[in-house]
């Protein structure tokens, strides 16, 4: 007779001293882990609930401006520095880690219309209502020294925006036309116009650095190549585009913030149809900025809210608002992909987390592992109705909620009317036009 | 352990030889190619002799071009076997890498590449089916799914490799040639086993308050005894230390542990009581009266009770709420079992039927006619695939719960009064005072039991101890703990059930378990259903969307022939091209339906005649 009976030596399973870690022998045999799917589902549900519990995105409010914040710029080298220009011509430089203003200068008379930093981070440019372009040093003057610009250009017309080239000593301003300037000269290298209109914003492409995009008040978006003397092409939309932002990862993609409450993502090669229409705002969208990963962007709106959209989704994943935040005029996504800054009418700059429920600070490895596991679970069960409902739920201020409801009713009525009209007309005489094409009036080359 | 290791090594050696042959074949091809190349550029090489650097490896053997070198090289290759050289690109890369590594350290890896994994080990960890990538329409989704598949594959392989590191081996019992294992007495087993195991065979003589019902905790450390005449005792049976001992002064019909060894439930003559491990009464549940049998569903924190008035009740013990009360209309419910794989309660009735219940539905999910007389005992194995039932007709049936078909049937002399499955699939049955243990019952009808033992009195309760080779039997004069080698899982998962857990570990486990308590609404016959695609809702949603929009946004656009060169895009040829596409679609449709028809016909033909019943003639 041969016999072996299970007999475990407790020394192999119990820690030797109290200082040791407990021994945790694992066996991954599925027979020992029944109800795999239901248990994972419950875990995913808990993780989703906890995510909503921990969603506290508001970090700080930077106050100090004496008028509405009109424009902001990121420092290209330092994560903790951000610049802002206000409607009274004041420019402030902020330290985000200390959450305080480190320098204030009276840059212009009237509005500071645009602000941008040089790619090296040693100086920055501002344009204002006093028809000047000024270049400033990033470091302030020594004790007792006077705040004076490095360089001032007196222009003939009003400038409404400015952006610097990503690699060369060239910048572009916009106003009645798009001017491209050499830093060393007092007159533009070239001026680009297409029709008579006022241009509200101009942006350099961060990858294909010779390309520019601008939006004008006659409802069009115009693309330029710096190497040519004439514009490339333009697309005319239903309503005015306020600003645009290039995708930092895909050279040919840009997103425009439109007056008709929507954002339109375009592929610059195929302008006859937008790649995606992002709708959720209930008022004009005033500013947009991409995350450095190029997967998401943040938009600021006149409806007193900030929304975060995935590039490939039609609706926002997140909405930020507070009781005190007024019309948000400018917004920036920081270069470490972690924070969002928004400047609004009531003179404050607000700092938000880009991921509302993220824990800041250093994570213990176990904490990180648990976080990753929960993330994966949420992803796996995201389509289950209960989990989807909890993950999607956001509280909205009453005005936005009611406005959204009203817009939904209007859209529904329009759709119903179109359906009826189609029903009573000759088949094929009323073609279906997708939302992506509906708002595009024409493309001109 | 050693024996198994040896077998492993043998397998390795075989595959190693196989690879060596393949490597040789490939080397021969590569060698001839290399030889051709060197013949072309041979002259130049001789003229400028390159300086040898150590990082470039040792100089290639000076081979005078021709046949002898080839033979020599082949000989060399034979002495140096390589695995994973199937000629694929990856294999070649591995080969190259290992070669370089070998040259730096001066030694060659005799078993390059990953160790081979036997298929049966991998299969154990595979779940569900692979996604059909070819059927996915979107390229993006296809890539995503392919990546997921890759990850799943890796996880499965790693889990299978992990098997090797498990510390314990399951027990076994083998008789001498010509000796039946069922003739081996418990005393002999205890004597042959080690001292620690021998202490696990013991008998408690408690002939005052008998017959005893009993239950083990899920880690298998603690034992609960309940005598019919009111004696309730909880003990750590391995150290034989008593937790508490009380007499409830009332008839006790059943006892069960709740989620930890801190609480247990006792079904008494009138009501259900909950006690803690000190014997203090925590709760008296008067809504649960006349309970005859209880089952605790550990992952749902539900206590299912079956009463003499035919009510099946579920109590959520984490919040103390009654989840469901079901009138089974099945008479006195003295037979109950749970399916550990899907938490379905099996009830045996006096009319020979077994019914399956979930708390969400007031009707039985399944009603099976299992016996000609009443049902005496029901047990379901740990995989949830097989159910054993015994009835007054003295038969023991094994049912396949996937098809609800009987697979095995045997007649026992007195009929089995109690049944229990062990973790590794042994089936214990009590016939009067004889306890018999069967092995591999679902696979083949056993002509002899694996083990047999005679008790001093008729058995009244029967449970295998989890993670131990122990079978506990409660009977008229106490409790007997029997050694059944090969019954328990050898390796436990400490995050699930840890027999050696400390107090702190138990507390942590309790919090975790409560956090992931599965709601009772999720109890269904197939617990994996939650992870599947809900095609019905999806279709319904799509249908609603089409109705709302007035058109199908996912519809395939009509074929629009591309404009071709001058003359080839005439109206006639355009029409022809359109027709060709339309015909092709039609053809594939017809082909598919034909294939389906043929497959159905073949299936009908292949089905054995024996299973057809007389009612088949009314089938279409």
UniProtKB/TrEMBL annotation, chain A:
Pathway where it operates: Protein modification; protein ubiquitination
Cited InterPro entries: Sof1, WD40/YVTN_repeat-like_dom_sf, WD40_repeat_CS, WD40_repeat_dom_sf, WD40_rpt, WD_repeat_DCAF13/WDSOF1
Family according to the record: Belongs to the WD repeat DCAF13/WDSOF1 family.
Residue ranges of WD repeats: 62-104, 278-319, 321-362
Protein name: DDB1- and CUL4-associated factor 13
Listed GO CC annotations: cell junction; centrosome; Cul4-RING E3 ubiquitin ligase complex; cytosol; nucleoplasm; small-subunit processome
GO molecular function, one term: nuclear estrogen receptor binding
Keywords: Nucleus, Repeat, Ribonucleoprotein, Ribosome biogenesis, rRNA processing, Ubl conjugation pathway, WD repeat
UniProt key word Transferase: no
CDD domains (alphabetical): WD40
Any GO BP: proteasome-mediated ubiquitin-dependent protein catabolic process
Keyword match Lipid metabolism: no
Domain of life: Eukaryota
Name of the gene: DCAF13
Residue ranges constituting the Sof1-like protein domain according to the UniProt record: 354-440
Compartments, record wording: Nucleus, Nucleolus
Main localization (coarse): nucleus
Automatic annotation (TrEMBL), chain B:
Domain of life where this protein originates: Eukaryota
Renumbered ranges of WD repeats: 368-409
Residue stretches in coiled coil: 138-165
InterPro entries: BING4_C_dom, WD40/YVTN_repeat-like_dom_sf, WD40_repeat_dom_sf, WD40_rpt, WDR46/Utp7
Domain BING4 C-terminal, residue spans: 449-527
Cellular localisation: Nucleus, Nucleolus
One GO BP: maturation of SSU-rRNA from tricistronic rRNA transcript (SSU-rRNA, 5.8S rRNA, LSU-rRNA)
Main localization category: nucleus
Function (record text): Scaffold component of the nucleolar structure. Required for localization of DDX21 and NCL to the granular compartment of the nucleolus. Part of the small subunit (SSU) processome, first precursor of the small eukaryotic ribosomal subunit. During the assembly of the SSU processome in the nucleolus, many ribosome biogenesis factors, an RNA chaperone and ribosomal proteins associate with the nascent pre-rRNA and work in concert to generate RNA folding, modifications, rearrangements and cleavage as well as targeted degradation of pre-ribosomal RNA by the RNA exosome.
Name used for this protein in its record: WD repeat-containing protein 46
Origin species: Gopherus evgoodei (Goodes thornscrub tortoise)
Source species taxonomy: Eukaryota, Metazoa, Chordata, Craniata, Vertebrata
């Amino acid at each position: 007779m041969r016999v072996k009976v299970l007999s475990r030596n407790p020394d192999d399973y119990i820690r030797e001293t109290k200082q040791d870690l407990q021994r945790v022998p694992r066996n991954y045999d599925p027979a020992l882990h029944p109800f795999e799917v239901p248990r994972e589902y419950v875990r995913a549900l808990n993780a989703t609930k906890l995510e909503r519990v921990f969603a506290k995105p508001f970090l700080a409010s930077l106050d100090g401006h004496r008028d509405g914040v009109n424009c902001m710029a990121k420092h290209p080298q330092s994560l903790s520095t951000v610049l802002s220009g206000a409607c009274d011509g004041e420019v402030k430089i902020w330290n985000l880690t200390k959450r305080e203003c480190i320098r204030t200068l009276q840059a212009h008379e009237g509005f500071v219309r645009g602000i941008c930093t040089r790619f090296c981070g040693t100086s920055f440019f501002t344009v204002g209502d006093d028809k000047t372009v000024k270049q400033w040093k990033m470091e302030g003057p020594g004790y007792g020294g006077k705040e004076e610009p490095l360089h001032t250009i007196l222009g003939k017309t009003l400038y409404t925006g400015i952006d610097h080239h990503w690699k060369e000593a060239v910048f572009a301003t916009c106003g009645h036309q798009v001017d491209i300037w050499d830093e060393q000269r007092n007159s533009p290298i070239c001026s680009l116009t297409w029709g008579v209109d006022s241009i509200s914003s101009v942006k350099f492409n961060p990858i294909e650095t010779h390309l520019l995009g601008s939006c004008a008040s006659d409802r069009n978006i115009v693309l330029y190549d710096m190497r040519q003397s004439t514009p490339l092409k333009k697309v005319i939309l239903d309503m005015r585009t306020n600003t645009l932002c290039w995708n930092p990862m895909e050279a040919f993609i840009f997103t425009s913030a439109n007056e008709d409450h929507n954002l339109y993502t375009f592929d610059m090669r195929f302008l006859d149809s937008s790649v995606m229409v992002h709708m959720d705002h209930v008022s004009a969208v005033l500013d947009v900025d991409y995350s450095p990963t190029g997967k998401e962007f943040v938009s600021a709106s006149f409806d007193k809210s900030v929304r975060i959209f995935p590039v490939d989704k039609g609706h926002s994943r997140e909405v930020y608002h507070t009781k005190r935040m007024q019309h948000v005029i400018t917004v920036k996504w920081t270069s470490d992909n972690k924070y969002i800054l928004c400047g609004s009418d009531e003179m404050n700059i607000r700092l938000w987390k880009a991921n509302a429920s993220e824990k800041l600070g250093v994570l213990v490895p176990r904490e990180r592992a648990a976080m990753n596991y929960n993330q994966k679970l949420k992803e796996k069960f995201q389509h289950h109705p209960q989990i989807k409902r909890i993950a999607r739920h956001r509280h909205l201020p009453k005005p936005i909620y009611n406005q959204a409801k009203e817009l939904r009713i209007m859209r529904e009525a329009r759709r119903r009317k179109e359906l009826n009209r189609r029903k009573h007309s000759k088949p094929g005489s009323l073609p279906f036009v997708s939302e992506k094409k509906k708002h595009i009036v024409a493309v001109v080359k | 352990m050693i024996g198994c290791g040896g077998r492993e090594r043998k397998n390795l050696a075989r595959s190693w030889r196989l690879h060596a042959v393949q490597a040789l074949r490939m080397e021969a091809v590569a060698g001839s190619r290399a030889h051709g190349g060197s013949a072309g550029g041979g002259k130049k090489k001789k003229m400028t002799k390159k300086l040898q650097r150590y990082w470039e490896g040792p100089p290639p053997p000076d081979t005078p071009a021709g046949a002898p070198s080839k033979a020599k090289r082949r000989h060399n290759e034979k002495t140096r076997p390589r695995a994973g050289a199937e000629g694929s690109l990856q294999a070649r890369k591995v080969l190259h890498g290992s070669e370089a590594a070998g040259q730096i350290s001066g030694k060659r890896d005799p078993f390059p590449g990953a160790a081979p994994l036997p298929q049966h080990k991998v299969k154990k960890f595979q779940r569900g089916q692979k996604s059909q990538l070819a059927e996915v329409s979107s390229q993006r989704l296809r890539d995503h799914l392919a990546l997921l598949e890759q990850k799943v594959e890796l996880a499965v392989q790693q889990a299978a490799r992990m098997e090797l590191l498990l510390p314990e081996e399951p027990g076994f019992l083998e008789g001498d040639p010509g000796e039946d294992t069922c003739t081996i007495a418990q005393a002999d087993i205890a004597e042959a086993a080690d001292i620690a195991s021998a202490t696990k065979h013991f008998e408690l003589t408690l002939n005052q308050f008998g017959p005893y019902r009993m239950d083990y905790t899920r880690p298998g450390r603690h034992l609960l005894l309940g005598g019919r005449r009111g004696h309730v005792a909880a003990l750590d049976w391995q150290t034989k230390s008593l937790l508490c001992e009380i007499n409830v002064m009332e008839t006790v019909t059943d006892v069960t542990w709740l989620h930890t060894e801190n609480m247990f439930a006792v079904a008494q003559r009138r009501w259900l009581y909950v006690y803690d491990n000190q014997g203090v009464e925590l709760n008296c549940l008067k809504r649960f009266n006349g309970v005859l049998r209880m089952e605790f569903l550990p992952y749902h924190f539900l206590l299912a009770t079956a009463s003499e008035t035919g009510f099946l009740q579920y109590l959520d013990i984490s919040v103390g709420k009654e989840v469901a009360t079901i009138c089974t209309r099945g008479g006195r419910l003295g037979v109950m079992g749970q399916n550990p794989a899907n938490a379905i309660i099996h009830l045996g009735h006096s009319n020979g039927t077994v019914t399956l219940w979930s708390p969400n539905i007031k009707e039985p999910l399944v009603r099976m006619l299992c016996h000609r007389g009443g049902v005496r005992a029901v047990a379901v194995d740990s995989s949830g695939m097989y159910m054993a039932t015994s009835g007054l007709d003295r038969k023991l049936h094994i049912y396949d719960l996937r098809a609800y078909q009987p697979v095995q049937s045997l007649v026992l002399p007195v009929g089995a009064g109690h049944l229990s499955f062990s973790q590794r699939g042994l089936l214990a049955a009590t016939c009067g005072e004889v306890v018999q243990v069967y092995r591999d019952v679902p696979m083949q009808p056993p002509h002899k039991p694996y083990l047999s033992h005679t008790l001093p009195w008729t058995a009244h309760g029967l449970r295998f101890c989890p993670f131990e080779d122990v079978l506990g039997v409660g009977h008229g004069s106490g409790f007997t703990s029997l050694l059944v080698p090969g019954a328990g899982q050898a390796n436990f998962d400490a995050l699930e059930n840890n027999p050696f857990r400390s107090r702190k570990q138990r507390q942590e486990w309790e919090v975790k378990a409560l956090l992931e308590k599965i709601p009772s609404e999720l109890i269904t016959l197939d617990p994996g259903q939650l992870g599947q695609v809900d095609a019905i809702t999806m279709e319904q949603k799509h249908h609603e969307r089409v109705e709302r929009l007035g058109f199908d946004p996912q519809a395939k656009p009509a074929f629009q022939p591309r404009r071709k060169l001058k003359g080839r895009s005439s109206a006639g040829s355009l029409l022809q091209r359109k027709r060709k596409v339309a015909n092709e679609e039609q053809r594939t449709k017809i082909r598919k339906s034909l294939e389906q028809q043929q497959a159905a016909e073949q299936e009908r033909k292949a089905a054995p005649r024996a299973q057809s019943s007389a009612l088949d003639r009314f089938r279409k």
